Amino acid sequence: MESNVSISSAKTDSTRRNSEEKDEGKLITPKEVKKERLRSLDAFRGLNILLMIFVNYGGGGYWYFSHAVWNGLYITDLIFPWFIFIMGTSLGLGISSLVKKEVDPVEGLWGIIWRSVKLFAVGIMYNTKSSNDLENIRMTGVLQRLAMVYFITAIVHYAGESLQCCMRSRGTVSRWRHILSDLAPYFGEWITMLVIIGIYCYFTYWFAVPGCEAGYVGPGGLHRDGAHAGCTGGAALYIDLKVYTMRHIYQWPDIRTIYQTDSAFDPEGLLGTLTSIFLCFLGLQAGKILVCHKGHRERLVRWLIWAIITGGIGTLLCKAQLEDGWVPINKNIMSISFVLVSAGTGFIMLSVMYILIDSWKLWNGQPFTYAGMNSIVLYMCHSIFQGYFPVSWQMPDMTQHWQLLLLHTWGTAFWAIIAYAMYKKKVFISL
Question: What domain count does the chain have?
Fold first, then answer.
């Protein structure tokens, strides 16, 4: 989905200040401001996809470019959550455009359904790149989770935005209504998200999985001297087995080697999709701020406040500890603390990109903007062609960091060049 955002322009700083003072109590609609592409969002997406490619190619063989086996957080663990966050931000801009254009609700709903189906179908096809044995095909995956998260979040927001949209509010309003214009009209959406989080918490911490202790969310196997050997992931694995069966989930997680578990476990399972929806909704909040507030300062202050709130609560839940917090940070089950910290860092990254690119205009976002405009192509192709020259080749000594770093950096640069070529040819592919 192409993401365009309306922002106001001013010829001088003094003109901007006078305009902001004049319109302090007025909600600005997209029709009243100049349209301009939000390059910082493309750059954030592009940085994320190129970082993902570098990590998937091996990250130079450095340990800090790996994923946490179970609890914990590395920079690489934030890549997928940032994609979800960015999708939410883009969603806010896309839905606002539908409402502004007064697109027929049935047509808008069909567009949401169709995009979700395409994402899910492409994800299934992507899972057959190594084996097309349909009896054992993995039904879950990155694109499948994105499809489900997008569908639920988009439906919830489209319904709320169609009923009352801050963009369409006109006339002078109170100062508080203006300040809360990206939050107050969406009370129903927040209630829906809290219900989703409540469902996640019930199954994760109170549902009694047969043969397991209620609330256990560890890796099983040798964890805690084997006391929970058959309880990997708690309810997360139990639900996936009931819905997908063992043959249709991810078979070789790292915990099978580290903790010697005897079970598969899928990091893109159903239960974690619930908290992923909430993460997307927090990204959507960033999009609402873009839609409802025109000034750079207005946007940045709100993003940083949300970064402090989400990051602070997430840190509090895990007590800033690896294992002994109330809710440890865990990407595999998309724990609430992990989701909140991911959202907090997402708000910060978006703010930094926005300051450099759209506000101060110190940088145009290149080369990341090119990759961000064709992220789905880079995601699919970088994996499919990973073993082919000139993307990669056999180095003389594959144990040397400098050789691996050179190889993996080149592989990443190769796809950045492809993205640039597609940009120059004006080829943009999205689902």
Answer: 1
